[in-house]
Amino acid sequence: PPKPAGPVQLPENATPAVAVSNPQPSVSNINAVLAAAGVEEITVIVKFVITESGDVANATVARGNAAIDPQVLATVKTWKFKPAMVDGKPISIFKTVKFRFKLKT
User: Fold this and answer.
1) pTM for the predicted model, two decimal places
2) Least enclosed by CB within 10 Å: which of 29, 40, 72, 104?
């Protein structure tokens, strides 16, 4: 059978991907970053592909903060998933995740 053309949006008839390992990003300097930006909260949105093998590929920041984006991306790239399935076969899908970082008092 022909190989899929690449990642797709999760079809309605698919079983969604399930995280096997997805530690949350730890941003040690978040208070300093928030203070420098003059805000109490920063949202980082990461878009990536979950491959047929359950790995993360093509991770990019859609919205974020240059001071913490590399730390968030590095963590997301370590995530592992049980891949999405259609008709018993793994498929590659697009995924978007939001992280909110708040000022710690």
Assistant:
1) 0.88
2) 104
